[in-house]
Amino acid sequence: MKQQLQRTLPNAQEVRIVGGTYPTPPARALAAKACSTAFLASLGVALAGQQLVFLPPTVLNFIAQQRGMLIGAGFLLNMVGGALGQTGAFEVSLDGELIFSKLQAGAVPTVAEIRRIVLQKTLLDKYGDSSAASS
């Protein structure tokens, strides 16, 4: 999107386009990290469970019988952790003013929409008023 905007905006040299990530809330980031750690632990236990001789025999027996369930639960935890780490945010600011937010609009804008908004806020606001005042 950044490259398309830089190619199509007539005032692209006047507009600095910068992309970045929207921060995940700390509680969600912690839960995502815990899910990721549990994923690795479940895979380790499922794949190397019989070598963990310090575990009681009942636990080793459970691991041997439920290996598929442990691996499946691990991959499920990995997907949940990935979903928790994503904010789904996409925001566009111009001179510190929020001009588009996916969180508020509920949809990702097209390049044409962003281009129209940026042109309106830069060129039309700057030159549109002066041409109307001189008439």
From TrEMBL:
GO molecular function ontology, one term from the record: thioredoxin-disulfide reductase (NADPH) activity
A Pfam family this chain is assigned to: Rdx
Superkingdom of this protein's organism: Eukaryota
GO annotation terms (biological process): cell redox homeostasis
Alphabetized InterPro entries for the sequence: Selenoprotein_Rdx-typ, Selenoprotein_T, Thioredoxin-like_sf
Keyword presence, NAD: no
Membrane-traversing stretches: none
UniProt KW keywords: Redox-active center, Signal
One GO cellular component term: endoplasmic reticulum membrane
Signal sequence interval, chain numbering: none
Record's protein name: Rdx family protein
Organism in which the protein naturally occurs: Leishmania donovani
Lineage: Eukaryota, Discoba, Euglenozoa, Kinetoplastea, Metakinetoplastina
